[in-house]
Amino acid sequence: xxxxxxxxxxxxxxxxxxxxxxxxxxxxxxxxxxxxxxxxxxxxxxxxxxxxxxxxxxxxxxxxxxxxxxxxxxxxxxxxxxxxxxxxxxxxxxxxxxxxxxxxxxxxxxxxxxxxxxxxxxxxxxxxxxxxxxxxxxxxxxxxxxxxxxxxxxxxxxxxxxxxxxxxxxxxxxxxxxxxxxxxxxxxxxxxxxxxxxxxxxxxxxxxxxxxxxxxxxxxxxxxxxxxxxxxxxxxxxxxxxxxxxxxxxxxxxxxxxxxxxxxxxxxxxxxxxxxxxxxxxxxxxxxxxxxxxxxxxxxxxxxxxxxxxxxxxxxxxxxxxxxxxxxxxxxxxxxxxxxxxxxxxxxxxxxxxxxxxxxxxxx
Length: 364
Known about the structure:
single chain, alpha+beta, T-fold, three-stranded antiparallel beta sheet, 12 helices, 17 strands, about 40% helix
């Protein structure tokens, strides 16, 4: 873990600030859980991983065993974070260095093969709106950094990178070697890694016989089992106000994920620029404050909860429904720049809104 991350993790005052700023879901999650009195053992651990606050909550296990299991999950998260980091030294950054020297080849770490192939599959499914290969565009806007400095990149540089059209399909895995057909490829798995980690953690905890757990990685949340027969209850952060805009019960194996413009962004000349870049234009997506997707139980529910919100966010008010359908997602909510809510009927049935007077647009 980087020294700066250690400092944030160990400083109570700094932790509180990042806890609110980066992971509003976490606050809501803690509130909902703490409201349940006189329950069997409920073990809760936090750490700063993937550039956000991570929480593991385990229900019904003896304290020592729950602590051991949670610590293992958090250690695995830290390893995965270092492996998949797009710009600091690690497996993915070394791969990116090879991509930049196209058509240079190198041996691929076996564990990266299913990740690259799955990310490529999901990118193709999204019609390229989810595109981890645009890391150079993300870096150009300053979002491959721990601090975000307001900047307006040279339009010619943006145009050049968009014209280079880096895609995940440019990556070739040939036996034990890999290379890129396009030197503009720089993979950034920031919209994939947290969901992938959820799936791995859930698989591990289930293999250890855990009957109830909730894993939260910066607002990407997965439920395992229940809390003593009761569904886990979580909140969806309001993109412009403290607290939840809605709450819902999360059942066994379900995962929920939100992409918003309120966590990683900067303001410039009164305009908000967020980290979600539209691959078609090279500019941060506009017109949307947040998109939340609810994914049913499945082997890749966590991964899809991380990935599927991005195409809908980029597609915007006019295209979000088609983008969600392309990803096979039925339960979706979009909050536009005016604070109006667009959602599917099935998602509406699951949500309990926390304030009155909201404008809802139900879209079949």
